[in-house]
Request: fold
Amino acid sequence: MIGCFAGFVIDSDKLLLMGGSVSLAVITLLILKSLRLSTKSKLALIYAHLVFLFFPFVVLTTNAACGVACMPCGNNVASLVALALPTTFLASTVAGFFVIPGFYMFFSRKAETGNTRIMRFIRYHSRRMKLKMSKVYILDSANPIAFSFKSFKSMIFISAGLMDLLGKKELEAVILHELGHIKRKASVLTMSFSLLRFFSPLSLISRFHHDSDTEEIHADRAAIRIQKTDKYLKSAKRKMDAFEKESAT
Ligand SMILES: [Zn+2]
Reply:
């Protein structure tokens, strides 16, 4: 019986595995804090960080469980990893739903908007679309970006650069597009589908004008339907494209 508990013994291979994972968790966090990255790269790094962070814990518990159950995985690093990896991804995915919106809440330079015109516009259209009022934040960034989250609360982020760049109607088109995303994701069905599809909390976020998948088309349609024209949405995208080209050269 005592032999079964051999699984508890941590040999050097497993120590190396766990040590490596913790180091990678630290490295991803350092990169995240020191580099200026795009929203997508940031999110990918947060997710990677969570994976590396959870992995040692899952290896430890799997290792112990194998020992108790007298399974052979206790002496085989490869089978241990094969057992621990899916659980790690599941734990990271669940954690990501809390951590990723939290990251944007606490670590980005932003302020809740006091712009009454924008707030009134969003409140009016949220009510019409049968949505709860979103939190609206202005990001302190010259890059013209907008994105939204829908996890437990919905949040819309708009950069100061975007507000400078766009006219009133164009900005409204972008906001309606984001509300269109939130409306789609508010349905539990869509949310669980996107979770299954990407198996990652990265699917929580929607960025204006970067992915041209079906979600974007649906969000665009929401904006066009309300404004009764695609003129403003198109000119907003044109301006954002032009800004990106300019800053790339
Ligand atoms: Zn979008």
